[in-house]
Amino acid sequence: MGFNQLPFLWTAIFPIIVLLYYFFRKKYSKQSVSSTLFWKEVMKETKASPYLKHLQRNALFYLQILAMVLLVIALLQPFWKTKALAGEQIVFIVDTSATMEVSLSDTTLFDQHKKDMLVLIEQLAGKPLTIITTGNQPTVIVRQEKNYNLIKNEIEKLEVAYEFENMSKSLDFAQSFFQDKATSVYIFTDQLDRQTLPLQYENVTWNVNGLKTDVQNISIKRFGANKTTNGLSALIQLENQSNVEQTTELLLANEQTEVVKEKVIIPPNEIITLSFNEMEESGLLKASIQVNDQYSLDNSMTVFLQDQLSTVYVDSSIHSLVRTAFQSMDIEVSSVPAEQIGLLTEEGITVTNQFGLIDRLDRPSLFIGRNDEVAKEVNGVVETTEHELFSFANLEDIYVSSVYPPIEGYETIATVGEEPFIQESPRGDIVVLSDIQMTDWALHPSFPLFMWSVKEQLSAGNTYLGTFSPNERKPLSLGSSTNEWEIYTTDDSYEYSIENGGVFIAPKKPGLYVLHSNAVEKNFAVALSQSEKEITKGASYKIAGQQVDAKENYQPYSLVPYLLIILLLLFVIEWEVQRRRGFTN
């Protein structure tokens, strides 16, 4: 507590004068007693309640002294100091990715962050607040808002969006709100490296609230299945992200029954790969692990199995290791002379290097190398994007000596240094911009796994749209007689509708979904990205800007309005006391 106008302390002389006046005034009053018989009764009554009698006689004195003391205090302008957030403005960056669903005793990390935000807004002290949620497209929830109730309601409505947080994009977006003002930025996430923060702003203080405890998590890292001549084959990877050995029960089930039930032991901080063959054919296959960990979103995965093209037709001019890779995955392969590859009429997947045939092939195909261009030497590490073709195939360790020129308008999904290495056409063709003999890829286990993934993607029928990340936006030509498609879960729970020809927005929760339009149905899956299956212990820390006061910030709240209300009440009471005694007295 403090005072803004201490010079007005001299006004304390007025209540002192009033007090002195009452000291020198007459201290008794005449009282007529009609008879000596009543004298004793009067004295008894006086002695029985002396304080009440005293208060009745001196009520005006106490009221006036109290009023004058409060007036003096009001002139001094007292205030009460409350803790406030530092800076001229506040920015919240809220991570809404799937990892925010990790359990912490009786709550989740996301709910704990919401509680922390509600505590912090109590200390805004009238400063403007901006709330930004992370994602592929960062969203502003409130902008420069000072209304406490509105801010509180928006925080309580925040939900997990399950998509990759893309924190770097959110940080870039938040910088547009700084505007050379002293700013306190609060980041609510699980883990954030200090080097990620843009520390070039001297007027910005960074406050990171992370996951401060170790988490026990067992994850289904990857899961895939396909139909073979002997039934279903499945490949699954399990990861133990804890420091102790974990035992879990792995279940594989189709629409009706369990087809695999196996006890699995996973060493600490390791990934194990399991394969299962000759399983009963079905339309879908669900993998789940029975484990009591702190993150359940990665404990199950489901794949949709459809009628697929079973034969791969390989151009005879392609290196024989390509055929061997497909055959090692139990895929039927047929070698076709180079001059006949464009004349094929059989249904199947075509693998060639004759890029000029791309417009003559009816279906998306795999191109390995290009016979219409000259390769150039490259040097660098292979880097891949978040694409389903690399779910099982890790290309980081392979060596590539040369690549062909990229195709304009195609999406690059893997690079060597700065040069495109693998591209995908708008209709789905996969183009590897290098001959196999220009790399050591065939010597790595990722080579047949990549070929298997390519076969899975290219053999997809028109009833399966593919796998999407949560909230992924993608233009799709769905081809319906009506102009609207409805999205349902596999349990026939309605989600929402989309217009044909518009931008398709995938649901936010992982799982299998069905698109309905009259009698037409198309299936698709929503799956977490690999980064959202890794729970890492983080830390909470603060980095203060050089031009921002690092000391605790306090906001003064004036007590004068409350004193004036009390004074008004005292004046009313004093008037009533005077009225009852009579103003002439």
UniProtKB/TrEMBL annotation:
Gene3D superfamilies: von Willebrand factor, type A domain. Residues 1-78 form the Aerotolerance regulator N-terminal domain. The chain crosses the membrane at residues 6-24, 59-80, 559-577. Residues 90-190 form the VWFA domain. Pfam families: BatA (PF07584), VWA_2 (PF13519). Keywords: Membrane, Transmembrane, Transmembrane helix. PANTHER family: BLL2463 PROTEIN (PTHR37464). This is von Willebrand factor type A domain-containing protein. It comes from Psychrobacillus insolitus. The lineage of its organism: Bacteria, Bacillati, Bacillota, Bacilli, Bacillales.
